[in-house]
Amino acid sequence: MHAPLLVLVAGLGAPEPPGVPAPVEVPAPRSDPETPDAETMQWSAPASCPDVTEFRASVERRLGRALVDDEVKVEARVEATTGGYRLALRTVASGVTDTRTFEAGDCTTLVDAAGLVVALAVDPLAVAARVLDPPPAARDEFSDPVAAEPTVTTVRTRGSSVAPGVSSGPVTRRADARMHDVRPTGLFRVGVGVGLGVVPRVSGAVSAAAGLRWRRARLELEGSYWIPRVAKPIGPWVRVQLGTVAVRGCGQLARERFDVVVCAGPQIGRMGGHGVGTRYPRRADAIWFSLNAGVAMSWWFRPRWALAGGLDVAVPVVRPAFELAGAERTQLYTPASVSGRLWLGIEVRTRAP
Predict the structure, then answer these.
(1) Which residues, 6 or more positions from 129, have their beta carbon under 8 angstroms from its beta carbon?
(2) Domains (range + CATH), the chain
Protein backbone atom coordinates (compact mmCIF):
# COMPACT_ATOMS: atom_id res chain seq x y z
CA MET A 1 0.00 0.00 0.00
CA HIS A 2 2.90 2.41 0.69
CA ALA A 3 4.70 2.04 -2.65
CA PRO A 4 1.85 3.24 -4.93
CA LEU A 5 1.23 6.10 -2.58
CA LEU A 6 4.86 7.24 -2.80
CA VAL A 7 4.81 7.03 -6.58
CA LEU A 8 1.66 9.12 -6.76
CA VAL A 9 3.04 11.73 -4.44
CA ALA A 10 6.34 11.82 -6.23
CA GLY A 11 4.67 12.31 -9.55
CA LEU A 12 2.88 15.45 -8.52
CA GLY A 13 5.68 17.67 -9.61
CA ALA A 14 7.17 15.56 -12.38
CA PRO A 15 6.12 15.63 -16.02
CA GLU A 16 3.96 12.78 -17.16
CA PRO A 17 5.71 10.09 -19.18
CA PRO A 18 4.88 10.15 -22.83
CA GLY A 19 2.16 7.77 -23.88
CA VAL A 20 0.46 7.63 -20.47
CA PRO A 21 -3.01 9.23 -20.54
CA ALA A 22 -3.99 11.82 -17.98
CA PRO A 23 -6.31 10.58 -15.22
CA VAL A 24 -9.98 11.34 -15.87
CA GLU A 25 -12.21 12.38 -12.95
CA VAL A 26 -15.52 10.48 -12.97
CA PRO A 27 -18.28 12.46 -11.19
CA ALA A 28 -20.34 10.62 -8.57
CA PRO A 29 -24.03 10.05 -9.38
CA ARG A 30 -26.15 13.11 -8.50
CA SER A 31 -29.18 12.66 -6.31
CA ASP A 32 -31.90 15.08 -7.31
CA PRO A 33 -33.96 15.88 -4.25
CA GLU A 34 -36.79 17.06 -6.44
CA THR A 35 -37.15 13.68 -8.19
CA PRO A 36 -39.89 11.58 -6.49
CA ASP A 37 -38.97 8.20 -5.12
CA ALA A 38 -39.90 5.58 -7.67
CA GLU A 39 -40.97 3.20 -4.92
CA THR A 40 -43.49 5.63 -3.39
CA MET A 41 -44.84 7.29 -6.54
CA GLN A 42 -45.02 5.31 -9.77
CA TRP A 43 -46.28 7.27 -12.77
CA SER A 44 -46.86 6.06 -16.33
CA ALA A 45 -48.41 8.35 -18.94
CA PRO A 46 -48.18 9.27 -22.63
CA ALA A 47 -45.73 11.99 -23.62
CA SER A 48 -48.59 14.48 -24.10
CA CYS A 49 -49.51 14.27 -20.39
CA PRO A 50 -47.81 15.97 -17.45
CA ASP A 51 -44.91 14.06 -15.90
CA VAL A 52 -44.48 12.70 -12.40
CA THR A 53 -42.96 15.95 -11.15
CA GLU A 54 -46.09 17.89 -12.08
CA PHE A 55 -48.26 15.17 -10.56
CA ARG A 56 -46.37 15.35 -7.28
CA ALA A 57 -46.56 19.16 -7.35
CA SER A 58 -50.36 18.90 -7.73
CA VAL A 59 -50.56 16.76 -4.58
CA GLU A 60 -48.29 19.05 -2.56
CA ARG A 61 -50.19 22.12 -3.74
CA ARG A 62 -53.40 20.64 -2.32
CA LEU A 63 -51.66 19.77 0.97
CA GLY A 64 -49.84 23.07 1.29
CA ARG A 65 -46.60 21.26 2.10
CA ALA A 66 -44.11 18.76 0.72
CA LEU A 67 -44.77 15.04 0.87
CA VAL A 68 -42.90 13.05 3.50
CA ASP A 69 -41.10 9.83 2.59
CA ASP A 70 -43.31 6.73 2.88
CA GLU A 71 -46.32 8.94 3.68
CA VAL A 72 -48.23 7.54 0.71
CA LYS A 73 -47.59 5.04 -2.04
CA VAL A 74 -49.07 5.84 -5.44
CA GLU A 75 -49.41 3.82 -8.62
CA ALA A 76 -50.87 5.80 -11.51
CA ARG A 77 -51.21 4.75 -15.13
CA VAL A 78 -52.64 6.98 -17.84
CA GLU A 79 -53.79 5.50 -21.16
CA ALA A 80 -55.13 7.21 -24.25
CA THR A 81 -58.71 6.29 -25.20
CA THR A 82 -60.98 7.12 -28.11
CA GLY A 83 -62.54 10.10 -26.36
CA GLY A 84 -59.58 11.26 -24.31
CA TYR A 85 -57.66 9.64 -21.47
CA ARG A 86 -58.22 7.10 -18.71
CA LEU A 87 -56.29 7.14 -15.42
CA ALA A 88 -56.11 4.13 -13.09
CA LEU A 89 -55.03 5.26 -9.63
CA ARG A 90 -54.07 3.16 -6.60
CA THR A 91 -53.08 4.77 -3.30
CA VAL A 92 -51.96 3.29 0.00
CA ALA A 93 -52.03 5.71 2.95
CA SER A 94 -52.34 4.99 6.67
CA GLY A 95 -52.95 1.33 5.91
CA VAL A 96 -55.96 2.06 3.64
CA THR A 97 -55.86 1.00 0.00
CA ASP A 98 -58.01 2.94 -2.47
CA THR A 99 -58.44 2.17 -6.18
CA ARG A 100 -60.14 4.56 -8.57
CA THR A 101 -60.57 5.05 -12.31
CA PHE A 102 -61.02 8.46 -13.95
CA GLU A 103 -61.86 9.46 -17.52
CA ALA A 104 -61.60 12.89 -19.11
CA GLY A 105 -60.92 14.50 -22.46
CA ASP A 106 -57.93 16.43 -21.09
CA CYS A 107 -54.94 14.75 -19.44
CA THR A 108 -54.15 17.81 -17.31
CA THR A 109 -57.61 17.56 -15.75
CA LEU A 110 -56.92 13.95 -14.82
CA VAL A 111 -53.68 14.93 -13.09
CA ASP A 112 -55.46 17.63 -11.11
CA ALA A 113 -58.23 15.25 -10.02
CA ALA A 114 -55.79 12.50 -9.11
CA GLY A 115 -53.71 14.98 -7.14
CA LEU A 116 -56.79 15.92 -5.11
CA VAL A 117 -57.58 12.26 -4.39
CA VAL A 118 -54.04 11.53 -3.24
CA ALA A 119 -53.96 14.65 -1.07
CA LEU A 120 -57.25 13.67 0.56
CA ALA A 121 -55.86 10.21 1.29
CA VAL A 122 -52.80 11.75 2.98
CA ASP A 123 -54.37 14.56 5.03
CA PRO A 124 -58.04 15.43 4.39
CA LEU A 125 -58.06 18.13 7.09
CA ALA A 126 -55.20 19.99 5.45
CA VAL A 127 -56.96 19.84 2.07
CA ALA A 128 -60.21 21.11 3.60
CA ALA A 129 -58.38 23.97 5.29
CA ARG A 130 -56.78 24.94 1.97
CA VAL A 131 -60.16 24.89 0.21
CA LEU A 132 -62.02 26.87 2.88
CA ASP A 133 -59.25 29.41 3.51
CA PRO A 134 -56.64 29.27 0.72
CA PRO A 135 -53.58 31.52 0.84
CA PRO A 136 -53.79 34.66 -1.36
CA ALA A 137 -51.52 33.16 -4.01
CA ALA A 138 -53.77 30.12 -4.38
CA ARG A 139 -57.23 31.72 -4.21
CA ASP A 140 -57.50 32.10 -7.94
CA GLU A 141 -56.77 28.38 -8.30
CA PHE A 142 -59.58 27.35 -5.95
CA SER A 143 -62.11 29.92 -7.15
CA ASP A 144 -61.72 29.60 -10.91
CA PRO A 145 -64.07 27.07 -12.50
CA VAL A 146 -62.53 24.03 -14.14
CA ALA A 147 -63.15 23.83 -17.86
CA ALA A 148 -63.72 20.09 -17.88
CA GLU A 149 -64.44 17.86 -14.90
CA PRO A 150 -63.36 14.21 -14.81
CA THR A 151 -65.98 11.49 -14.68
CA VAL A 152 -65.42 8.74 -12.14
CA THR A 153 -66.48 5.42 -13.59
CA THR A 154 -65.35 3.03 -10.86
CA VAL A 155 -64.60 3.75 -7.21
CA ARG A 156 -63.59 0.96 -4.86
CA THR A 157 -62.11 1.08 -1.36
CA ARG A 158 -61.01 -2.24 0.12
CA GLY A 159 -63.37 -4.02 -2.25
CA SER A 160 -66.45 -1.88 -1.38
CA SER A 161 -68.21 0.15 -4.02
CA VAL A 162 -68.53 3.88 -3.35
CA ALA A 163 -70.82 6.30 -5.17
CA PRO A 164 -69.04 7.93 -8.12
CA GLY A 165 -68.04 11.56 -7.85
CA VAL A 166 -65.12 13.74 -6.81
CA SER A 167 -65.99 17.03 -5.20
CA SER A 168 -65.10 19.23 -2.25
CA GLY A 169 -66.22 22.32 -0.37
CA PRO A 170 -69.48 24.04 -1.44
CA VAL A 171 -69.99 21.57 -4.30
CA THR A 172 -70.39 18.74 -1.77
CA ARG A 173 -72.87 20.70 0.31
CA ARG A 174 -75.00 21.54 -2.72
CA ALA A 175 -74.93 17.92 -3.88
CA ASP A 176 -75.96 16.72 -0.41
CA ALA A 177 -78.86 19.19 -0.35
CA ARG A 178 -80.06 17.96 -3.75
CA MET A 179 -79.85 14.35 -2.58
CA HIS A 180 -82.00 15.17 0.46
CA ASP A 181 -84.55 16.81 -1.82
CA VAL A 182 -84.75 13.74 -4.03
CA ARG A 183 -84.51 10.88 -1.54
CA PRO A 184 -87.70 10.44 0.53
CA THR A 185 -87.82 9.62 4.21
CA GLY A 186 -90.24 7.09 5.67
CA LEU A 187 -92.88 8.63 7.94
CA PHE A 188 -95.23 7.07 10.52
CA ARG A 189 -97.87 8.73 12.68
CA VAL A 190 -100.45 7.76 15.32
CA GLY A 191 -103.08 10.20 16.54
CA VAL A 192 -106.28 10.77 18.46
CA GLY A 193 -108.90 13.42 17.88
CA VAL A 194 -112.47 14.59 18.14
CA GLY A 195 -114.84 15.09 15.24
CA LEU A 196 -118.30 16.27 14.39
CA GLY A 197 -120.62 15.50 11.48
CA VAL A 198 -119.61 11.92 10.62
CA VAL A 199 -121.28 9.89 13.38
CA PRO A 200 -123.97 11.27 15.70
CA ARG A 201 -122.91 14.10 17.96
CA VAL A 202 -119.27 14.74 18.96
CA SER A 203 -117.17 11.58 18.73
CA GLY A 204 -113.63 10.48 19.33
CA ALA A 205 -111.45 9.13 16.53
CA VAL A 206 -108.13 7.28 16.37
CA SER A 207 -105.85 7.17 13.34
CA ALA A 208 -102.58 5.72 12.04
CA ALA A 209 -100.67 6.82 8.96
CA ALA A 210 -97.62 5.80 6.97
CA GLY A 211 -96.02 7.58 4.05
CA LEU A 212 -93.04 9.19 2.39
CA ARG A 213 -91.68 12.62 3.25
CA TRP A 214 -89.66 14.82 0.94
CA ARG A 215 -88.46 18.30 1.79
CA ARG A 216 -91.39 19.97 0.02
CA ALA A 217 -93.98 17.21 -0.25
CA ARG A 218 -95.57 14.18 1.42
CA LEU A 219 -97.55 11.16 0.30
CA GLU A 220 -99.62 9.47 3.03
CA LEU A 221 -101.89 6.49 3.52
CA GLU A 222 -104.06 6.96 6.62
CA GLY A 223 -106.56 4.71 8.35
CA SER A 224 -109.04 6.05 10.91
CA TYR A 225 -111.81 4.74 13.12
CA TRP A 226 -114.69 6.78 14.54
CA ILE A 227 -115.92 5.54 17.92
CA PRO A 228 -119.61 4.47 17.81
CA ARG A 229 -122.17 7.08 18.85
CA VAL A 230 -125.90 6.87 19.26
CA ALA A 231 -128.55 8.88 17.42
CA LYS A 232 -131.73 9.04 19.56
CA PRO A 233 -134.73 10.44 17.76
CA ILE A 234 -138.19 9.75 19.15
CA GLY A 235 -138.67 6.00 19.63
CA PRO A 236 -136.07 3.54 18.26
CA TRP A 237 -132.48 4.68 17.83
CA VAL A 238 -129.31 3.65 15.99
CA ARG A 239 -125.64 3.27 16.97
CA VAL A 240 -123.33 4.44 14.14
CA GLN A 241 -119.58 3.85 13.58
CA LEU A 242 -117.19 4.44 10.69
CA GLY A 243 -113.84 3.05 9.52
CA THR A 244 -111.98 4.71 6.62
CA VAL A 245 -108.81 4.63 4.54
CA ALA A 246 -107.51 7.82 2.89
CA VAL A 247 -104.78 8.54 0.35
CA ARG A 248 -103.44 12.07 0.58
CA GLY A 249 -100.94 14.14 -1.32
CA CYS A 250 -99.43 17.03 0.59
CA GLY A 251 -97.44 20.16 -0.02
CA GLN A 252 -94.96 20.95 2.73
CA LEU A 253 -93.10 23.99 3.96
CA ALA A 254 -90.19 22.59 6.00
CA ARG A 255 -87.96 24.49 8.38
CA GLU A 256 -85.32 23.29 10.82
CA ARG A 257 -87.84 22.22 13.50
CA PHE A 258 -91.27 22.87 11.96
CA ASP A 259 -93.25 21.48 9.03
CA VAL A 260 -96.42 23.15 7.79
CA VAL A 261 -98.39 20.66 5.69
CA VAL A 262 -101.48 21.10 3.47
CA CYS A 263 -103.06 17.84 2.28
CA ALA A 264 -105.95 16.69 0.10
CA GLY A 265 -107.23 13.39 -1.24
CA PRO A 266 -110.06 10.85 -1.38
CA GLN A 267 -111.31 8.81 1.56
CA ILE A 268 -113.28 5.58 1.37
CA GLY A 269 -114.73 3.50 4.17
CA ARG A 270 -117.60 1.50 5.57
CA MET A 271 -120.23 3.02 7.84
CA GLY A 272 -122.25 0.65 10.03
CA GLY A 273 -125.44 1.21 12.00
CA HIS A 274 -127.02 -1.10 14.56
CA GLY A 275 -130.69 -0.62 15.41
CA VAL A 276 -131.71 -0.52 19.07
CA GLY A 277 -135.16 -0.36 20.67
CA THR A 278 -137.07 -2.24 17.97
CA ARG A 279 -138.68 -5.65 18.04
CA TYR A 280 -136.29 -7.02 15.40
CA PRO A 281 -133.08 -4.96 15.54
CA ARG A 282 -130.74 -5.34 12.60
CA ARG A 283 -127.35 -4.13 11.49
CA ALA A 284 -126.91 -2.23 8.23
CA ASP A 285 -123.64 -1.28 6.46
CA ALA A 286 -123.06 1.20 3.65
CA ILE A 287 -120.18 2.64 1.66
CA TRP A 288 -118.72 5.98 2.70
CA PHE A 289 -116.80 8.06 0.15
CA SER A 290 -115.63 11.62 0.68
CA LEU A 291 -113.10 14.21 -0.44
CA ASN A 292 -110.82 15.39 2.33
CA ALA A 293 -108.58 18.40 2.86
CA GLY A 294 -106.60 19.45 5.88
CA VAL A 295 -103.81 21.52 7.33
CA ALA A 296 -101.32 20.32 9.93
CA MET A 297 -98.11 21.31 11.70
CA SER A 298 -95.25 19.16 13.02
CA TRP A 299 -92.75 20.24 15.66
CA TRP A 300 -89.58 18.12 15.57
CA PHE A 301 -88.51 18.17 19.21
CA ARG A 302 -85.99 15.43 18.41
CA PRO A 303 -84.23 14.75 15.08
CA ARG A 304 -86.64 11.87 14.30
CA TRP A 305 -89.60 12.59 16.58
CA ALA A 306 -92.29 15.25 16.24
CA LEU A 307 -95.48 16.39 17.92
CA ALA A 308 -98.11 16.91 15.21
CA GLY A 309 -101.61 18.33 15.09
CA GLY A 310 -104.10 19.47 12.53
CA LEU A 311 -107.62 20.04 11.29
CA ASP A 312 -109.27 17.90 8.58
CA VAL A 313 -112.49 18.65 6.69
CA ALA A 314 -114.47 16.04 4.73
CA VAL A 315 -117.19 16.52 2.14
CA PRO A 316 -119.06 13.20 1.60
CA VAL A 317 -119.80 12.27 -2.01
CA VAL A 318 -121.61 9.05 -1.03
CA ARG A 319 -123.50 9.70 2.22
CA PRO A 320 -125.31 6.76 3.82
CA ALA A 321 -128.66 7.20 5.58
CA PHE A 322 -130.18 4.96 8.27
CA GLU A 323 -133.97 4.52 8.40
CA LEU A 324 -136.45 2.53 10.44
CA ALA A 325 -138.24 0.12 8.09
CA GLY A 326 -141.96 -0.33 8.49
CA ALA A 327 -145.29 0.90 7.21
CA GLU A 328 -143.78 4.34 7.26
CA ARG A 329 -140.03 4.83 6.90
CA THR A 330 -138.50 6.93 9.66
CA GLN A 331 -135.10 8.48 9.18
CA LEU A 332 -132.89 7.78 12.16
CA TYR A 333 -129.54 9.33 11.09
CA THR A 334 -127.79 10.89 8.08
CA PRO A 335 -124.20 12.27 8.25
CA ALA A 336 -123.76 15.99 7.80
CA SER A 337 -122.87 17.41 4.40
CA VAL A 338 -119.56 18.69 5.87
CA SER A 339 -117.65 17.11 8.73
CA GLY A 340 -114.51 18.04 10.61
CA ARG A 341 -111.88 16.44 12.82
CA LEU A 342 -109.34 18.05 15.15
CA TRP A 343 -106.43 15.73 15.96
CA LEU A 344 -103.13 15.48 17.81
CA GLY A 345 -100.45 12.82 17.32
CA ILE A 346 -96.82 11.70 17.33
CA GLU A 347 -94.77 11.40 14.14
CA VAL A 348 -91.52 9.52 13.59
CA ARG A 349 -89.33 9.54 10.50
CA THR A 350 -86.90 6.80 9.53
CA ARG A 351 -83.96 9.12 8.92
CA ALA A 352 -82.94 12.42 10.46
CA PRO A 353 -82.09 15.22 7.97
Answers:
(1) 64
(2) 41-168 (no CATH), 185-349 (2.40.160.20)
